[in-house]
């Protein structure tokens, strides 16, 4: 398994909480993130690395979006 790196538009609040809002796919398509929940520090068991994993709902599908040292990715 590997990683697909993506661009994310996110909100940053005054307490340092980051919430992803829009996912920009490498080919230019983009999707609004309907909801982000179950935010936790974790290791990416399939793709390697560790960071913050966001369980998100995008277009009625559950997606695991991870941020590792400022780089956002989805596991393949």
Structural notes for this entry:
The chain has one domain (3-75). Strands 3-2-1-7-6-5-4 form a seven-stranded antiparallel sheet, with no helix packed on it. With 76 residues, the chain is mainly β. The chain has strands spanning 3-12, 18-24, 30-32, 35-43, 50-58, 61-68, 71-75. The protein is 0% helix and 67% strand. The chain has no helices and seven strands.
Top keywords for this entry?
single chain; 76 residues; mainly beta; 7-stranded antiparallel beta sheet; 7 strands; 0% helix
Summarize the structure.
This protein has 76 residues and is mainly beta. The protein has one domain. The protein has no helices and 7 strands.
Any low-confidence stretches, pLDDT <50, length ≥5?
A: none
Helix amount? under 10%
Alpha carbon gyration radius: 12 Å
Termini gap: 6 Å
Q: DSSP strand (E) fraction?
A: over 45%
Number of helices: 0
Report the principal-axis shape: globular
Please report the total strand number as a whole number.
7
Strand order in space, largest sheet = 3-2-1-7-6-5-4
Mean pLDDT: 90
